[in-house]
User: Which sequence fits this backbone?
């Protein structure tokens, strides 16, 4: 048997990354965390518990679709649209003029300005959701 890494009374901080797998409908401050691809809850937390830090890493709706409006980590809006140069790619343009195109650009935008949250779904997203 090995020695304990911690002693009773030690103050520690645990960081856990997981996927939200449940939200208590009666009390939405309670959320369950589990593994990606699983509906199982491994642990429950509260969003209003000051001893628990929680940070959005990637919104479930990511990546953007044309017509979506996203909000960045500071609350600024970003509009998703077809890239102007060829009309086939995807571009994400902020209300302050920053612009990123295609998959690598979207990843870079998320690194610099994220995490992004979907503010308003575009027509394409709404059509996809209604067909599921």
Assistant:
């Amino acid at each position: 048997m090995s020695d304990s890494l911690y002693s009773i009374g030690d103050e520690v901080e645990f960081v856990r990354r997981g996927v939200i797998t449940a939200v208590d409908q009666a009390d939405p401050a309670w959320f369950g965390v589990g593994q990606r691809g699983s509906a199982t809850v491994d642990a429950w937390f509260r969003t209003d518990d000051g001893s628990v830090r929680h940070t959005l890493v990637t919104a479930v709706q990511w990546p953007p679709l044309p017509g979506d409006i996203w909000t960045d980590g500071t609350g600024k809006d970003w509009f998703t649209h077809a890239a102007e140069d060829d009309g086939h790619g995807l571009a994400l343009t902020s209300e302050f003029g920053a612009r990123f195109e295609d998959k690598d650009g979207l990843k870079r935008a998320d690194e610099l300005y994220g995490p992004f949250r979907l503010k308003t779904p575009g027509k394409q997203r709404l059509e996809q959701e209604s067909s599921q």
